[in-house]
Amino acid sequence: MRSFGSDNNSGVHPRIMKALLEANVDHTIAYGDDKWTAEAAGLISELLGNREIDPYFMFNGTGANVVALEACTLPFHSILCATTAHIAVDECGAPVKMTGASLKEIPTPDGKLTPELIIPHLHGFGFEHHSQPKVIAISQTTELGTAYTTEELKALAQLAHKHDMYLFVDGTRIANACAFLNVSLKEMTVDCGVDIFTLGGTKNGLMFGEALVPLRKELSENIKYYRKQTTQLYSKMRYISAQFIPYLNENIWMLNAEKSNKAAQKLYSEMVNIKGVEITQPVESNALFFILPKEITDKLRERYFFYDWDESRNEMRLVCSWDTTEEDIYNFIDYLKRITENN
């Protein structure tokens, strides 16, 4: 079923599938001591302009987020994030359970944290009765599909470092942000002062797998132990890392993100002209948020799968994928026009 439910719903890019088959030969050393993992790690280091960077490959986004936050915190710390953040909403409490640190959720109109929103929460330092702020955690792109500019990232990093804190970027869709802003991965992370981030793959054409990239030595020291404890150390690591070789080497990560972003822009350009449709967020990636009367969205669900976002006002989310076609978009738009005109 073709839908706009999630970029998790799409299949695997053919070149990535070929890479998996190419890696499926003979025997090799397990747990990442193989040539594919070494090559993939080297490609990430090259993209970031630093051979000393040591990426860690993991199964999924939640696992990578948890390991990143474990590397940054002790149980008496707190993690500041948007109320819409994936770590706050969609990870079943895993970050709190696994780190012991508390989450401080900050309301935002567009999913983006700013220094002005964060500063009121930066208090209690050195006071033993309060959890100690230690991490500013953001999603790039946000859960509302918006993208932090490099200037916004630099401002958050400067604020974090001023208070001896870390800036963590959940980059499950960081490729979409790079494509939208036309910046490199290095410009988005290293050059902005990001301390640790994840590089997503699952939502952008891979079968499975994310890379966790620490950019400060002290954050890298214990990640291998946290990865093992959180069951993210894959014995047959080559099947994760082998995907990242063409993904990065052949620029698939960027090409796929450009495709899904372009599809979302096309979808937006069609939907904005349909009577009664209210677009609620800027379309800066591959996601689109909209409001329609419930009777219309109920009818729309008879043919298409998508998620509610804010049920109180019947706000819905549509997500385009690397393989979303113009036919997918026009079929959806034609049906949406028909049911709105007949209502």
Summary tags:
4-stranded antiparallel beta sheet; Aspartate Aminotransferase, domain 2; 2 domains; 343 residues; 7-stranded mixed beta sheet; globular; alpha/beta
What overall form do the CA principal axes indicate?
globular
CATH classification, class level of the largest domain: Alpha Beta
Q: Summarize the biggest pleated sheet.
A: 7 strands, mixed
User: Cα distance, first to last residue?
Assistant: 25 Å
CATH homologous superfamily grouping of the largest domain: Type I PLP-dependent aspartate aminotransferase-like (Major domain)
The number of domains is 2
SSE pattern = HHEHEHHEHEHEHHEEHHHHEEHEEH
What is the CATH topology of the largest domain?
Aspartate Aminotransferase, domain 2
Strands of the largest sheet, in order across it? 1-7-6-5-4-2-3
Strand content: 15-25%
Structural class comes to alpha/beta
CATH architecture of the largest domain: 3-Layer(aba) Sandwich
Strand and helix map with partners:
Layout: H1 14-23, H2 35-47, E1 56-58, H3 61-72, E2 77-82, H4 86-89, H5 94-99, E3 102-106, H6 115-118, E4 132-139, H7 150-162, E5 166-170, H8 174-181, H9 185-188, E6 196-199, E7 210-214, H10 217-220, H11 223-229, H12 238-249, H13 252-271, E8 278-279, E9 287-291, H14 294-301, E10 307-310, E11 315-319, H15 326-341
Helix pairs in contact: 1-12, 2-12, 8-13, 13-15
